[in-house]
């Protein structure tokens, strides 16, 4: 197995550099649930063509970027945040990063401009794996796992460079991967 970390809640999954699945090409996935029944996460660097007011009509002029969290249930809206001090809800998944929370409170915070885009991220759909599916994919070297990373990566809006930046953050052992072309035939 390429990765020496085991996935857990709050881990980042990094797709292998030549992954062909367009849902996960050069993706960084934050895991929000991981247990014997399966795993749930959100792709942090696949921006959709929508902003929040396009997806939820009663959000007024909310112009927050909406990301494609994954190919599962893409008619649902999810969010992660780092504003628990104002939300007072959500499940902590990693050092001050929370998953979900009270939607009505969130609406009020957004209407009153008390939440900024660098402290919340919205997703349509999610990424999901059945009970042993992720483990099988890890054994096939489809993913790298990191449990230690700069938490600012979760809220960054640099879709183009996020995958590369996180790979470089894994250290010299993995740095060469960051420079692989997206298609090995381009080499």
Can you tell me about this structure?
This protein is of the alpha+beta class and 187 residues long. 21% of the residues lie in helices and 31% in strands. Strands 1, 2, 3, 4, 5, 6, 7, 8, 9 and 10 form a ten-stranded mixed sheet that branches. The longest helix has 11 residues, at 159-169.
Shape: globular
How many helix segments?
6
The share of residues in helices is 10-25%
Residue stretches low in confidence (pLDDT < 50, at least 5 long) are: none
End-to-end Cα distance? 25 Å
In short:
This protein is of the alpha+beta class and 187 residues long. It has 6 helices and 10 strands; from the N terminus they run E-E-E-E-H-E-E-H-E-E-H-E-H-E-H-H.
Task: Please describe the topology of this protein.
Layout: E1 12-15, E2 28-35, E3 38-43, E4 47-51, H1 52-55, E5 65-68, E6 72-81, H2 84-87, E7 91-94, E8 97-99, H3 103-111, E9 120-129, H4 133-139, E10 143-146, H5 159-169, H6 172-175
Parallel strand pairs: 5-9
Antiparallel strand pairs: 1-2, 1-10, 2-3, 3-9, 4-5, 6-8, 6-9, 7-8
Question: Main attributes?
Answer:
10 strands; ten-stranded mixed β-sheet; globular; alpha+beta
